[in-house]
Design brief:
heterotrimer, A mainly alpha, B mainly alpha, C mainly alpha, B: mainly alpha, two-stranded antiparallel sheet, C: mainly alpha, Helix Hairpins
C-alpha cells in the first residue's frame, strides 16, 4: 500500500493565505469597486506571503523531525473531482503533500516571493498609471503565489495542472499588466499561446498515464499512487504505423515522458518553445524576477524531478531532455552576448540557466537540477531586482548602451549586483559555482548518449555565461558614463523597500551554495555529509547508477570550470574595458554572425513566417471568414439558433394551446404509445 | 380478541411532526385572527403571517432533524411489521430531509410575498405542510395504497395553492388546469395500480415484484399506466404541457415550492418503485424512459428559448432538467441513481433560488415576471442580480456550480452504462440551454434599467433563503464530494446520496 | 355467479368512457363527473380483482377492498377541492366552459 505520510493541517494554510488576500483584493477592486489605500493593500499581500514562508518553515521543522525515509507531510482536504467507478474511477483530491522536494520548492517560492513582494512596494510606488494599479498588481501577485504553491504542494497531477494553469494565467495577466500599451498585451498573449502548446502536451501525457494505469486496474493521479503502480506500465508499448520513426512500437513511458516534457518546455522556456520568455520582460520588473526567473519558469524542472521515477524508466525521453537542455543553454547564451537591453540579457541568461537544469535532470542529476534551481532563484531574482533598481534609477531606461559608469552613483546597488554577477558566473565559493559544478559532474557521469559532449557544451556555456554577465556588468557600471549629464545627476539608489530585499537575496546568493556543498569539498575541510541538500532530497528521487568519477577528476573539473569562467571574464574585461572599440570592429568583421545573434537566430522571424503568419492568414481567411463567420456563425450557431427558435415559435408553440383538453389529448396519445410499445 | 399489532410509531415521526405542524397552524390562525379577544390587543396581518410561517419553519426544522437522525442511524424500520406499508430507511429519510429543507426554505420565502400580494392567509402554510406530509408519505411508501394516499395528499393541497391568489384569473386558471389534468393523471395511475393488483394479487411492492409477469398483457398495461401517472408528475414530454401554464399562473412562491418538492418526491418514488417493485428495469421500460428522456430534454430546452416570461421559461427549464434526471433512471445503475439524488439536491437549491429572486422582485400589482424587466438589474439591485446570475449559470451547468456537478455525474453515469446517444443529446441541448439562461445575466449586466419599478428592499426571509441557496450552489459546485462548513463539520453529500440509494443494491 | 372477467371488462369500458368524457366535453362540471367515472371504474376493477384473488387463496385477502375505501375517500376530497376551484373560477368569469380557459399558453 501507498505510504500515506503524516497528517498536518498546517499545509493548507501555506497556499490559502495568499489566495485569501488575492480574493480580498479582487473583491475590493472588482466587486465593491473601492480600492484599498495602495500601501495598506501592499502590506496585506506581503504579510500573507511572509506568513506563508513562516508556515513553510514550521512545516519544514516538522518534516525534519521525521525519520529520513518517511519524510512526508500530507494534508488531505477534500475530494475535488470524484468520477467514474471501478477500474476507471478518477478521484482527484485537493490534497497537499510536503516531501523534501516540495519543501525545497515551497521555501524558495515563499522566501524569494516575499522578498519580491516587499521590493514591489517600492517599485510600484513609481507607477502612477492608474489608481487601481497597485492593488491589481498585488492581487495578481498573490494569486500567482497561490497557484505556484498549489503546483508544488499538490499531491496529484490534476491539482498540479490547476496550479500549472494558474501560474500561466497570472503570468499572462502580469506581462500585460500595463495593458494600455498594446505591445505589452501582445507579449502577454504570446506567452499564453506558446504555453498552451506545452499545456497540451502536459494534458496528453496526463491522459496517457491515467489510461495506462486504468488498464492495469489501478487508476490513480496522485504521485504516490502512480509511483506505487508504475512498474505495471513500464513494459507497455504503443503500436505505430510503419512509416513513423522507431516503428513498429514505442515504449509508452517514453511517449508519456516526452509529452510531459513538452509541457515543461512551454513553461520553462526550452527550445523550441522558449520564444515567449524574452518578450515576457515587457511586464514590471518584479514580475520578471518572481515569475520569469525565480519561480514559475522552474515549474517544468520541478515537474521533471517530481516525475523522476518515470524518467528513470524512460532513458530515451531523458536523453531528449538532456540534449534539449544543453542546446538551449548554449543557444540562449550566444544570443545573450549580443543583446543590449539589460533585461533581455538576463532573460536569455534565464533560458540558458534553465537549459542547465534540464541538462542535469535529463542526465539523472535531479538533485543537481533542484540545487541549481534554488541557487538560480536567489541570484537571478537578485539580478533582476537589481536591474530593476538600475532601471528605476535611470528613469525606465533599459538600454545598456546608454548606461555605464553607474558605479559611482549607485553605491548600494552596485554591491548586490556584483554579488549576483559573481554568483552566476560560477566563481567559488558563491552559490552558482557549486550548483553548476554539480550539474557538470552529473552530465559527465551520466549514461546519456554523448554525455561527454554534453559536458563540453556545459563548459562552453559556463564560459559564455561569465562573458556576457561581465559584459553586462562592465557596460552598466564601469567605464565611461554614456548617460546624459542631466539624467546622471539624478541617478541615485532607490528607496529602502527596493534596496533592502536586495541585501537579503545577495546574502543568499553568496552563501546558498553551502547547503549543497559537494562531498569532495566537505572531505577537504572535514565535514561528514556535507551535501545536506542531496541527502535531504535523496529519498524522493529515483536512484540512478551513474559512472563512477574519481575524486581527482572532480577536482580537475572544478578547476577547469573556474578557469573557463575566468577566461570569459577576462575576455569581457578586454573587450569592454581595455579596448572598448574592439567589439564594434568584431561585429563589423563578423557582421553576418553578429546580426544572426543580435536577431536571436531569427527564430522569432522563422516562427512568424512558418507558423504564425500562415496560421493567422489561414485563421483569418478560412477559419474566421468562411468557417467561423460563415459556417459556424451563419449556418451553425445563428442558423441553429434561428432554426430552433423557428421550430419552437412556428411549430411546437402551437401544441401548447392553453386548452386543458388538448393537453389531455396529448397525454392520451402518449399513454397509448407507451402501452402499445409495451404490448408489442 | 385481535392482538394489537406491534406498531413502530417512531417510524412515522417525520410525517407526524409535519401533520401536527399543519394542524397547529390551522388552530393558530383561528386563535390569532381573533387576537384582539385572545391576546387583548390588535395584531397586524403580517404579524400573524410571520408567526404562522415561523411555526411551519419550526416544524419543518424538527422534521429535518428527525429524518436526519433516522438517516444517520441507518437501517430499515417499518411501521407495522405484519403489513409493511411505510418504511423508514436511508432512502426515505434522506429524501424526507431534502423535502423538509426545501419546504422550510419555501415557507421563509413566502412571508413577505404573501403580504405584498395581499393573500396572507394562514392556511397557506397549513397547505404547504399537508402537501409536504403527503410527499414524505409517498417517498417512504412500500405499498401501492400508501403511494396513492401520499400522492393525493401531496397533490390536492397544491391544487389549492396554485389557485391561492383567488381574485386573479391566471391563478384560477393555473389551479383549474392543474386540478383537471392532475386528477385525470391520478385516475390513470390508479387504473394502472388496479391492473397491477389484478396481476399480482397484492398491493405491497414485494407482492408486485413476486407476482409481476412480463408475458401478461394486463401487467404490461398496468405498468405502462403507472409510468404515465408518474410521468405526469415529473412532467415528462408529452405529459408536460400543464407545467408552464401552472407554473406561470400560480403565485411565484407556490411555484418555487412545487417546482422543487413535487419533482423530488415524484422522482424518489419512481426510483423506489422501479428498484423495489419492478426489479431491475426491463429492457422495454428502459427504451421508454430513453425516448421520454430524449424528448423531454429536447422539447423542454427548445420551448424555453422563445419564452418571454421568467416563470414560464423556468418551467420549461424544469422540464428539461427532468429530462436530464431521467437519464439516471435509464441507466438503472447505483451510479445513475446516486447521480439523480445529487442532481435533485442541486436542482432544489438552484431552482428555489431562481424562483426566489422572482419572488423577491415581485411588487404589489407588478409581478416583474417579464424577462425584459430584468434589464439593468445589476444597477438597481446588485445583490439580487449577482445571485440570479449565479443561479442561471448553475442551471445552465457552468463549471464551479452545483448544476455542473449534477450534470457531470448524470452524464458520467450515462457514459458508464453505455447510453452514449442520450449523453450526446443531453450535452447538445445543454448548449442550447445556455442561450436562454444567459439572456438574463446579459440583460441584467449589459442593458440599461427599464422604468418598471421592482421592490426596492429585500425581506430578511427572502434574503436568508437566497443566501442559503447561493452558498449551497457554490459549495456543491466547488466541493461536490464533501462540503466543509464551519458549523456542522463536513457535509459529505455524495456519500449520503450513495448511501441513500445503496439500499436498493444491497448496500 | 357473475364471471369476474365481465366485471373487469365493465370497468375498462367505464374507464374509457370517463377518459373520453374528460377529453371531449366542454362543461367543467361534466368533466368533473367524467373523472369521477374513471375513479369508479378503478374501484370496480379493484373490487373485481379482489374477488378473484380471494377465491384463489381461499383466505380473506382484502387489499383491493381497502384500496377502494381509500379511493372513495380521496375522490371525495378531490371533488370538494375541484368544486371549490370551479367556484372561484365561476365567480371571476361567469362561465364553466373549459374552452374559455386559455389565458396561459405558449
Amino acid at each position: 500500500m501507498v505510504d500515506v505520510g503524516t497528517e498536518s493541517d498546517l499545509l493548507r494554510w501555506i497556499p490559502l493565505l495568499p489566495l485569501l488576500v488575492a480574493a480580498y483584493h479582487g473583491i475590493s477592486i472588482g466587486v465593491l469597486r473601492r480600492p484599498t489605500v495602495p500601501r495598506v493593500a501592499a502590506i496585506f499581500s506581503c504579510a500573507a506571503v511572509l506568513l506563508s514562508f513562516v508556515l513553510a518553515c514550521i512545516a519544514l521543522r516538522d518534516l525534519l523531525a521525521l525519520p529520513p525515509d518517511s519524510r512526508m507531510l500530507v494534508d488531505d482536504i477534500y475530494t475535488w473531482i470524484g468520477a467514474g467507478i471501478g477500474s476507471r474511477a478518477l478521484s482527484a483530491e485537493v490534497s497537499f503533500q510536503l516531501d523534501p522536494l516540495s519543501a525545497v520548492m515551497t521555501l524558495v517560492v515563499t522566501f524569494v516571493g516575499s522578498m519580491i513582494h516587499i521590493y514591489s512596494i517600492g517599485y510600484m510606488e513609481d507607477d502612477h498609471r492608474d489608481d487601481k494599479g497597485t492593488q491589481r498588481f498585488f492581487c495578481y501577485l498573490n494569486l500567482f503565489t497561490f497557484s505556484m504553491l498549489v503546483l508544488v504542494l499538490g499531491d496529484n497531477l490534476v491539482l498540479m495542472f490547476l496550479g500549472w494553469e494558474g501560474v500561466g494565467l497570472c503570468s499572462y495577466l502580469l506581462i500585460g499588466f500595463w495593458y494600455s500599451d498594446s505591445w505589452n498585451a501582445y507579449c502577454g498573449s504570446k506567452a499564453f499561446i506558446v504555453n498552451r502548446i506545452g499545456d497540451f502536451g502536459f494534458l496528453i501525457g496526463l491522459f496517457l498515464l491515467f489510461n495506462a494505469l486504468s488498464e492495469i486496474g489501478h487508476p490513480a493521479v496522485s504521485f504516490a499512487g502512480i509511483q506505487a503502480h508504475f512498474d505495471g506500465i513500464v513494459e507497455m508499448t504503443i503500436a505505430v504505423p510503419a512509416w513513423m520513426p522507431f516503428a513498429p512500437e514505442w515504449q509508452l513511458v517514453n511517449v508519456i515522458g516526452l509529452c510531459f516534457f513538452l509541457g515543461a518546455c512551454g513553461k520553462s522556456a526550452q527550445i523550441p518553445l522558449y520564444v515567449w520568455l524574452p518578450d515576457a520582460m515587457a511586464g514590471p520588473t518584479p514580475v520578471s524576477a518572481l515569475i520569469h526567473a525565480a519561480t514559475m519558469v522552474t515549474a517544468g524542472v520541478y515537474m521533471v524531478c517530481r516525475l523522476s521515477f518515470l524518467y528513470a524508466a524512460a532513458p530515451e525521453a531523458s536523453a531528449v531532455i538532456a540534449w534539449t537542455g544543453a542546446i538551449t543553454a548554449l543557444v540562449a547564451a550566444t544570443i545573450a552576448i549580443t543583446q543590449n537591453d539589460i533585461k533581455k540579457v538576463l532573460a536569455y541568461s534565464t533560458v540558458s540557466q534553465l537549459g542547465y537544469m534540464f541538462l542535469a535532470a535529463g542526465c539523472g542529476g535531479y538533485t543537481a537540477a533542484i540545487f541549481h534551481l534554488g541557487t538560480h532563484a536567489f541570484f537571478k531574482g537578485l539580478l533582476f531586482l537589481a536591474a530593476g533598481a538600475v532601471i528605476l534609477a535611470m528613469h525606465h531606461e533599459q538600454d545598456m548602451r546608454k548606461m555605464g559608469g553607474l558605479w559611482r552613483r549607485l553605491r548600494m546597488t552596485r554591491w548586490v549586483f556584483f554579488a549576483g554577477v559573481y554568483a552566476i558566473a560560477g566563481f567559488p565559493p558563491f552559490s552558482g559555482f557549486f550548483s553548476k559544478d554539480e550539474i557538470l559532474v552529473a552530465a559527465w557521469a551520466s549514461h546519456v548518449p554523448g554525455h561527454t559532449w554534453l559536458y563540453g557544451i556545459g563548459m562552453l556555456t559556463a564560459g559564455l555565461t561569465a562573458f556576457y554577465m561581465f559584459r553586462l556588468w562592465y557596460l552598466t557600471f564601469c567605464g565611461e558614463s554614456r548617460v546624459p549629464s542631466d539624467v546622471l545627476s539624478h541617478v541615485k539608489d532607490p528607496n529602502g523597500f527596493v534596496v533592502n530585499p536586495l541585501w537579503v537575496l545577495a546574502f543568499f546568493s553568496v552563501t546558498a551554495g553551502l547547503v549543497g556543498l559537494p562531498q569532495i569539498w566537505g572531505d577537504l575541510i572535514g565535514i561528514e555529509e556535507s551535501n545536506s541538500l542531496a541527502n535531504f532530497l535523496k529519498p524522493v528521487f529515483a536512484a540512478g547508477e551513474p559512472h563512477h568519477i574519481a575524486h581527482s577528476t572532480e577536482y580537475w573539473m572544478a578547476f577547469w570550470a573556474v578557469a573557463i569562467a575566468l577566461s570569459g571574464t577576462a575576455l569581457a574585461w578586454l573587450l569592454y574595458i581595455k579596448k572598448p572599440g574592439v567589439p564594434d570592429r568584431i561585429a563589423a568583421t563578423l557582421s553576418g554572425l553578429y546580426r544572426t545573434l543580435l536577431n536571436k537566430y531569427y527564430i522569432d522571424e522563422l516562427y512568424d513566417a512558418v507558423i504564425v503568419r500562415p496560421l493567422v492568414v489561414f485563421s483569418d481567411r478560412v477559419l474566421y471568414r468562411i468557417v467561423d463567420a460563415g459556417v459556424i456563425d451563419g449556418i451553425g450557431a445563428n442558423g441553429t439558433a434561428y432554426g430552433i427558435r423557428a421550430v419552437a415559435a412556428n411549430g411546437l408553440k402551437y401544441a401548447q394551446s392553453g386548452l386543458a383538453q388538448n393537453y389531455i389529448f396529448f397525454m392520451i396519445v402518449g399513454a397509448v404509445a407507451i402501452v402499445g410499445y409495451l404490448l408489442r | 380478541m385481535i392482538p394489537a399489532p406491534d406498531l413502530n410509531l417512531s417510524v412515522l415521526l417525520p410525517i407526524i411532526l409535519v401533520a401536527i405542524g399543519s394542524m397547529t397552524i390551522l388552530m393558530g390562525e383561528v386563535l390569532l385572527s381573533r387576537a384582539d379577544t385572545v391576546l387583548g390587543r390588535e395584531v397586524t396581518e403580517s404579524f400573524i403571517g410571520t408567526v404562522l410561517a415561523g411555526t411551519a419553519i419550526f416544524f419543518f426544522a424538527l422534521t429535518l432533524w428527525a429524518s436526519g437522525v433516522a438517516f444517520a442511524g441507518g437501517g430499515v424500520q417499518v411501521f407495522n411489521p405484519d403489513n409493511p406499508m411505510y418504511q423508514l430507511d436511508p432512502f426515505s429519510s434522506f429524501v424526507t430531509a431534502v423535502l423538509a429543507l426545501s419546504a422550510l426554505l419555501s415557507c421563509a420565502l413566502s412571508i413577505t410575498y404573501l403580504s405584498e400580494l395581499r393573500i396572507n392567509h394562514g392556511e397557506y402554510y397549513a397547505l404547504i405542510m399537508l402537501s409536504a406530509s403527503g410527499m414524505m408519505l409517498m417517498v417512504a411508501a412500500v405499498d401501492l395504497i400508501a403511494v396513492f394516499l401520499g400522492l393525493e395528499l401531496m397533490s390536492i393541497p397544491i391544487y389549492v395553492l396554485a389557485g391561492f391568489d383567488r381574485r386573479k384569473l391566471r391563478s384560477n386558471e393555473s389551479a383549474l388546469k392543474y386540478f383537471l389534468i392532475g386528477s385525470f393523471a391520478s385516475a390513470i395511475l390508479l387504473y394502472g395500480m388496479a391492473l397491477l393488483y389484478g396481476v399480482s394479487g397484492g398491493t405491497s411492492f414485494e407482492a408486485l415484484r413476486a407476482g409481476f409477469d412480463a408475458d401478461n398483457p394486463m401487467a404490461l398495461v398496468g405498468l405502462g399506466l403507472v409510468v404515465v401517472g408518474f410521468a405526469f408528475k415529473i412532467s415528462m414530454v408529452p405529459f408536460h404541457q400543464w407545467t408552464p401554464d401552472v407554473y406561470e399562473g400560480a403565485p411565484s412562491a407556490v411555484t418555487a415550492y412545487m417546482s422543487v418538492t413535487v419533482k423530488v418526491a415524484a422522482f424518489a418514488t419512481l426510483i423506489r418503485l422501479l428498484a423495489m417493485a419492478f426489479g431491475p428495469l426491463e429492457a422495454s421500460l428502459e427504451t421508454i424512459f430513453w425516448v421520454l428522456s430524449a424528448l423531454t430534454i429536447v422539447v423542454g430546452n427548445i420551448m424555453a428559448i422563445i419564452q418571454e416570461n421568467v416563470k414560464r421559461m423556468l418551467a420549461y427549464s424544469s422540464i428539461a432538467h427532468a429530462g436530464y434526471l431521467m437519464i439516471g433512471l435509464v441507466t438503472g445503475t447505483i451510479e445513475g441513481y446516486s447521480a439523480m439524488i445529487f442532481y435533485l439536491i442541486a436542482y432544489t437549491f438552484m431552482n428555489l433560488g431562481a424562483f426566489g429572486v422572482v419572488v423577491a422582485l415581485a411588487n404589489r400589482g407588478n409581478d416583474c415576471e417579464r424577462i425584459a424587466s430584468f434589464a439593468g438589474l445589476a444597477r438597481t439591485r446588485p445583490g439580487l442580480a449577482a445571485v440570479m446570475a449565479l443561479f442561471m449559470l448553475s442551471l445552465a451547468g457552468i463549471p464551479g456550480t452545483a448544476g455542473f456537478m449534477g450534470k457531470f455525474k448524470i452524464f458520467m453515469a450515462a457514459v458508464n452504462s453505455g447510453d452514449i446517444w442520450l449523453l450526446i443529446i443531453g450535452v447538445l441541448m445543454s448548449v442550447v440551454s445556455v442561450y436562454y439562461y444567459l439572456r438574463i445575466p446579459v440583460l441584467m449586466y449589459m442593458r440599461e434599467p427599464e422604468d418598471e419599478s421592482h421592490r426596492t428592499e429585500i425581506a430578511s426571509g427572502e434574503g436568508a433563503v437566497l443566501v442559503v441557496c447561493a452558498l449551497a450552489v457554490l459549495a456543491l459546485g466547488l466541493f461536490p464530494n464533501r462540503v466543509p462548513t464551519l458549523l456542522f463539520g463536513d457535509l459529505d453529500v455524495l456519500d449520503w446520496a450513495n448511501r441513500s440509494v445503496g439500499m436498493f443494491f444491497g448496500g | 355467479m357473475l364471471p369476474m372477467d365481465h366485471v373487469i371488462a365493465l370497468s375498462a369500458i367505464l374507464f374509457t368512457i370517463g377518459v373520453l368524457g374528460v377529453a371531449t366535453r366542454r362543461n367543467l362540471i361534466v368533466i368533473l363527473m367524467s373523472i369521477e367515472l374513471m375513479l369508479n371504474a378503478v374501484n370496480l376493477a379493484f373490487v373485481g380483482f379482489n374477488r378473484i384473488w380471494s377465491q384463489v387463496d381461499g383466505v380473506a385477502a382484502i387489499d383491493g377492498q381497502i384500496f377502494v375505501l381509500m379511493v372513495i375517500a380521496v375522490a371525495a376530497a378531490e371533488v370538494a377541492v375541484g368544486l371549490g376551484i370551479l367556484l372561484a373560477m365561476f365567480r371571476n368569469r361567469d362561465s364553466v366552459n373549459v374552452e374559455e380557459v386559455n389565458l396561459l399558453k405558449w
